[in-house]
Amino acid sequence: MSAASLPAPQGGARAPGFTSAPPPPSPVPYGRERRVLGDPAPLACTVAKAVMEALLGGPALDPYVRWIAPAVFGQVARQRSLARRAGLARSHPVGVRRARVFRVSRDAAEVSIVVDDGDHCRAIAMRLEDVTGRWLVTEMHVG
Prior knowledge:
CATH topology: Nuclear Transport Factor 2, Chain: A
Helix content: 10-25%
Strand order of the largest sheet: 1-2-3-4
Number of helices: 2
Number of domains: 1
Largest sheet: 4 strands, antiparallel
Shape: elongated
Order of helices and strands: HHEEEE
CATH architecture: Roll
């Protein structure tokens, strides 16, 4: 019996014994294997402290631009500008009281931080995502 005389499978059915080939592996950027990023808590605490200082009229966040998404950075820069125009000045150093990290997935974490600015304790919630092998703050809410 020749291959031309075999009936063609109907309805997408495959002949017994044949399996589909696995999809080709996705390309690895720069030829390196991506590994899971470490604990985001130290970065989150550092960024939260810097953001709180900026919102109270302190120094700009320019040194932290690498770890903050442009949309979040723009919002904080605008609030800092308004605080400086209003004449706000921090009287006490800002400190982090507590930070809790919840890994949502392999590439994302949500962090809740309690920050003390001397007069008030405030809550900061942020989402960090793995972007090109580093943590990036993609969302932030200050209470």
